Amino acid sequence: MSIEVDYRFPPGVDAERQAKVIAVGQTAGTWDARFAHHEEKLRSHLAEVVGGRTDPDGYSLATISFPETNVENDISSLLTMIFGKYSMAGAAKVVAVRLPEHYGSYPKLGITGIRERLAVVDRPLIMAIFKPALGLSAEDHAAILKEVAYAGLDIIKDDEIMGDLEVAPTLKRLEACRQIIDEVKQQTGRTVLYAVNVTGTADKLIEKAHLLVREGANALLLNVLTYGFSVLSALATDEKINVPIFAHPALAGAMCASPDYGIAYSVVLGTLMAHGGADAVLYPAHYGNLPFDPAEEIRIRDSLRSRNVFPVPSAGIHPGVVPKALFDYGQDVILNAGTGIMDHPDSPAAGVKAFFEALERVKQGESFELETLPKSALRRAVEKWGVK
Amino acid sequence: MSIEVDYRFPPGVDAERQAKVIAVGQTAGTWDARFAHHEEKLRSHLAEVVGGRTDPDGYSLATISFPETNVENDISSLLTMIFGKYSMAGAAKVVAVRLPEHYGSYPKLGITGIRERLAVVDRPLIMAIFKPALGLSAEDHAAILKEVAYAGLDIIKDDEIMGDLEVAPTLKRLEACRQIIDEVKQQTGRTVLYAVNVTGTADKLIEKAHLLVREGANALLLNVLTYGFSVLSALATDEKINVPIFAHPALAGAMCASPDYGIAYSVVLGTLMAHGGADAVLYPAHYGNLPFDPAEEIRIRDSLRSRNVFPVPSAGIHPGVVPKALFDYGQDVILNAGTGIMDHPDSPAAGVKAFFEALERVKQGESFELETLPKSALRRAVEKWGVK
């Protein structure tokens, strides 16, 4: 089986020449007569240029097929091969990576497993983020969680910048929140997932993930790009980590935002996360006012779902976005709201209720026009944020 | 102590506004009256805009000072804080990061430690790369090493894409090369370092690093950006890893090459590697025909040296570059040649000899004009590659 990669070059680049440079330079390299006796073996490691075209706008696309034997069935060695040295060679962007189906890891739980743990099968899941991001005590976290959990929230996560700080130790936060989760379970029968941010140097991070799971963490959050795909894969293939891993896209823009350099969002947050073993992946949605291409978002969604990974569009998500998000995503989506829940004019609990009202209203085919809305949490949200 | 970051924005961006967005959005975020009782604590986590200017070309620079208490004294949490979410917000490039001196890790060996192990104090070190990159057997590696090691080479490294493959297991390669290293030591008294590429998911990679060191590896090579800074830090702070770590820049271009997005090469390959615990860092030099800014190269050199980390300029290094490289770097540099040694017209051993001839010629103040060169390995190299 082979690995196919599409590289896009801006106008003025000799794409045909560059494609050959990649096919040789990112694999075996060149060799001379001294290695003639190894000719066959060396050739078996070379990549091949299998396609190319130049579009009317002057951009060119080259497709290169790499032997799977050159890599280690993981994302890190894949990245080294397809764009390691070549990323430094000039303007070029990796816009698609097609991997063999078996390549890398599968999620341990994914869409079906997360739904089972929550016992919610027939609607999108609603997710919130602790806010403010820094400066709260473990007790503050527990108080916030209590409010939103009883209002019906499915999942909450740490802010990605909330690490294991002296002033806010991760384990304390988990212990305080775990009590609320147990209490909610006892009183309502409902499970609420709390994705705890797991951080540290790779060795300590893995140890801490074990500790957190032992201490009752029922989900983990990982900043995959600042810690490394090798850490995601380590957690994903670790039998002791029997909870879903939520992958956060922090730093993705450094690699993906430039039009002519780096790697497409759909590759990093779609293909690579899906084959890296994440159970759910957060990524920028086009609902806010940030510069995201809806076509890239659709590609991410489809790459993730093709491996049973939960898509978690984020940014600009508030109750008034629900009709549009359901149109774009259907049921298999986690709607992740930060301010869209925590900054509801009445309370975070009202923010959660507004989402469930919105889901129900879409289900009943009812309008979101302000004048048709009853006096409710949803109406208050729509007054503040409008409807998408 | 605080962490200062310079962000550069292209013309048309309201830099003043964006700087405020970063200072708040990448730290505590906003809060409302409910958290008034935490005001002081929340404020202590906020970053501050401490400088800004717009240059005549329309580019703006904003300097933001982040509290050190927000992060975990490592590179991964630092990246999440300074550019996690914001990297996805539009055109902006991190062009400088100023860390407190004690932040992160120091190299275990660095310039002084590597020189001690090699017992070479007064000249640049000469380094080669196994070539072809894939397709050789462990015995082939040993045969190549034998040739260059007896010719006087100081260090050799795996190609960064040479992983732990079924057709070429890392341990076999080490075992075969280790015999040569022992033999050279016995017969000449000289130590030759072999930086073995250490790969795998983070847990396995760390285990493998332990195994390789136990089996006699005297240096490691790590693709820091494809495996993660958290893996570099894990190895750098691991007492069992008592050998130098050579950091490879594979994938750096995906983050650094765009003029208006991502993070500057000097930050990723200079500042972050130097505080991440690498002993020696490879990075693109401006000697070849690749698009690297000599000013960035100088910044990388100085960041690394300021923490006793060996700079390893790579790309376009051949014997004819030695006078220019010595002018730019002086003695504390590792000259890393791929084809510049392995593709010498006579042999890889002649490639190594040509480098030492070149060093001696510079020392004696002798010319590199072709007609002044004796019939020698250096002359053959200069005939092929010229003089920089």
From TrEMBL, chains A, B:
Residues 110-273, 307-385 form the Ribulose bisphosphate carboxylase large subunit C-terminal domain. Pfam families: RuBisCO_large. The keyword Metal-binding applies. Keywords: Magnesium, Metal-binding. Coiled coil: none annotated. One of its GO terms (biological process) is carbon fixation. SUPFAM superfamilies: RuBisCo, C-terminal domain, RuBisCO, large subunit, small (N-terminal) domain. GO terms for molecular function: 2,3-diketo-5-methylthiopentyl-1-phosphate enolase activity; magnesium ion binding; ribulose-bisphosphate carboxylase activity. Gene3D superfamilies: Ribulose bisphosphate carboxylase, large subunit, C-terminal domain, RuBisCO large subunit, N-terminal domain. PANTHER family: RIBULOSE BISPHOSPHATE CARBOXYLASE, RIBULOSE BISPHOSPHATE CARBOXYLASE LARGE CHAIN. This is 2,3-diketo-5-methylthiopentyl-1-phosphate enolase. It comes from Symplocastrum torsivum CPER-KK1. The lineage of its organism: Bacteria, Bacillati, Cyanobacteriota, Cyanophyceae, Oscillatoriophycideae.
